[in-house]
Amino acid sequence: MAHIYDTIIIGGGPGGLAAGLYAARSKMDTLLIERGKFGGQTATTDELENYPGSIEDCTGPSLIERMRKQAEEFGTAFVKDEITEVDFSGKIKKVVGKKETYEAKTIIIATGAYPRLAGFKNELELRGKGVSYCATCDADFFTELDVAVVGGGDSALTESLYLTKFAENVTVIHRRDQFRGAKSIQDKVLSNPKIKVIYDSVVDEAKGDEILEGLVLRNVKTGEASDLKVDGCFVFVGYLPITELFTGKINLDETGYIITDEDMRTNIPGVFAAGDVRRKSLRQVITASADGAIAATTAEHYIENEFNEA
């Protein structure tokens, strides 16, 4: 007879690890399944200054390792496996991995999301060394420096305005001849004296060895190349939620994010979601962690009060 856990958490980022901590601390039989490296995007963050209490050389990897050890000490079991199929149709939920099949009374999905790459040369090589995908995380590092923003949607324009609080100059690079963002945000961007806009252009290359030194731009209409000296490049061309596995299994929004209520419930009883994978306004370590705590607490209440009626 298969072992039936109280909860299975899919994903080992901050949301999943916080869920593991809260679930195990509540004496739930908890399994966390991660297919790769614990931490998700946080594991690639060298400095983590905006997580409360992280004031002494706190890095993404060090925070994630502390979170993992804490969850483990309270009893969370960890498995490395890649989930290939899920079945949420029954009272007992099934999760099929490449190694084996797992069963639980509840599921917490914390698979996260990842930023869409712009696709220019050296983008990945200089990620975290001047190339960033999060203004809230990294803007402070570029105080009184020159930065570029790649993108033309609401996120790119909103983050450009945010960056003006820190950077000396902000150059927005957009591949079209007009922005796609809301008119009200466009007006604010275009009237801000610290923001310069370069239309009809894309980034072909990030220049620099150990740190970003500048960008090579290309006009998409003329093909003309030009150099732009900047200290930072913020890419905002969208995020991709890791939800392919759940298509048709639970409700997703038009962009693929999981729809939940404020208690992290999906439309399927016993299935919850936490962190960047769910539809929300702010994707940060602190909000993912809060989601995980709420999801685990709600899952516990579900088992105590609703499971036998499901």
UniProtKB/TrEMBL annotation:
Record's keyword terms, sorted: Disulfide bond, FAD, Flavoprotein, NADP, Oxidoreductase, Redox-active center
EC nos: 1.8.1.9
UniProt xrefs under SUPFAM superfamilies: FAD/NAD(P)-binding domain (SSF51905)
Cofactor: FAD
Entry-linked InterPro entries: FAD/NAD-bd_sf (IPR036188), FAD/NAD-binding_dom (IPR023753), Ferredoxin-NADP_redctase_2 (IPR050097), Pyr_nucl-diS_OxRdtase_2_AS (IPR008255), Thioredox_Rdtase (IPR005982)
Record's cofactor remark: Binds 1 FAD per subunit.
Source species, domain of life: Bacteria
Database matches in Pfam families: Pyr_redox_2
Catalytic activity from the UniProt record: [thioredoxin]-dithiol + NADP(+) = [thioredoxin]-disulfide + NADPH + H(+)
Enzyme class at the top of the EC tree: oxidoreductase
UniProt entry tagged with the keyword NADP: yes
Similarity comment text for this entry: Belongs to the class-II pyridine nucleotide-disulfide oxidoreductase family.
PANTHER family in the record: THIOREDOXIN REDUCTASE 1-RELATED-RELATED
Subunit organization: Homodimer.
Name of the protein described by the UniProt record: Thioredoxin reductase
Source organism per UniProt: Clostridium omnivorum
Encoding gene per record: trxB2
